[in-house]
Amino acid sequence: MPKKEVSQTDRMVVTRIFDAPRELVWKAWTDPQYVMQWWGPKGFTAPVCRIDFRVGGKFLCCMRTPDGQEFWNAGEYHEIVLHEKIVSSMYFSDAEGNKVEPAQYGIEHPAIEDAFDVVTFEDLGNGRTKLTFIGNETMESAKNSGQLEGWNEVLDKFDAIVAGLRG
Amino acid sequence: MIERLSHGPASVHGLTESFAVSQQMISKHIAYLVRARIVNKTKRGRESVCTLRPEAIKSVSDWASYYRRFWEESFDKLDVVVNQMKKMEARDAKKRG
Questions:
Q1: Chain A closest CA to B45's CA: distance in Å?
Q2: Number of structural domains, chain B?
Q3: Is residue B80, in this structure, part of any structural domain at all?
Q4: DSSP A80
Q5: Which residues of chain A does B21 touch, with a Cβ-Cβ cutoff of 8 Å?
Q6: DSSP per-residue letters across B12-53
Q7: Is B29 in the A-facing interface, judged by CB distances under 8 Å?
Q8: Contacts of A38 (CB under 8 A, 6+ apart)
């Protein structure tokens, strides 16, 4: 379909720096008890949130608009790297988590096939964490997201080993 | 497509020309929008004319910004939650001494 529709949401990136350690931000992101407190735009509530947090596991969240309309979203976890990265899919669903066409909610979703959301957690030191959300990635680029940090850590470890050997 | 129709009704033929894709593709997309009750399709002579349903305009035009807004505003709330968690943890740590 018209390319413009796809590019509007193509590679949407939202970043935020939290004044909290990475483990805590991770917990807030993955524990339904906390997710219910932040899921959805301003003024919306999230009365239901269920998370089966493992690769292949699914999540189901309901958000309620200020005028009481309910929207259900579900998705599946495709990759989990503890305290570092989560790759997942997300779609509109019914209350049982079954995928529904966004049109049923009156939304024309410029659906991108094989699209994934990537969240990376970066430890900035001094108890600060940078959270990066990249929407609508293909699996290929999702795999590569955050790889740079991964490599840096590998290199750091490598340096340490090298230093130890020198010792 | 939605943006094109927001400027006024258009024939299927006209839409096909605007998007430089096959009429089959356009018809498929229109059928989807009609099912979703976003677009009305009426016959005018030999031509099918598509009109955007006025009540659909709001939710649809919201979509592009909706996805970003969802995450931006969720992040705002997450910031509050994280700060509360931090306070709770500090309090618990204090209790434990």
A1: 27
A2: 1
A3: no
A4: E
A5: 1-2
A6: HHHHHHHHTS-HHHHHHHHHHHHHTTSEEEEEETTEEEEEE-
A7: yes
A8: A28, A46, B74, B75, B77, B78, B80, B81
pLDDT tens digits, B12-37: 888 888 777 788 888 888 887 887 77
- For A61-100, the pLDDT digits (tens) are 999 988 888 889 999 999 999 999 999 998 889 999 998 8
> Considering only CB atoms, which chain B residues are within 8 Å of A108?
2, 33, 36, 38, 60, 63
Domain that holds residue B9: 2-52
Is some CB atom of chain A closer than 8 A to the CB atom of B19? yes
ipTM: 0.72
Contacts of A131 in chain B (CB under 8 A): 75, 78
What CATH number did the domain enclosing A160 receive?
Answer: 3.30.530.20
Whether pTM > 0.90 for this model: the answer is no
Q: What pLDDT sits at residue A112?
A: 55
**Containing structural domain, residue A146:** 3-166
Low-confidence ranges of chain B (pLDDT < 50): 60-61
Query: In angstroms, rounded to a whole number, what is the distance separating the alpha carbons of residues A156 and A162?
Result: 10
Residue A55 has a pLDDT of 97
Residue B75 lies in a domain: no
The minimal CB distance from B63 to the residues A12, A29, A109 is found for: A109
Q: Nearest to residue A25, comparing CAs of A128, A116, A146, A118?
A: A128
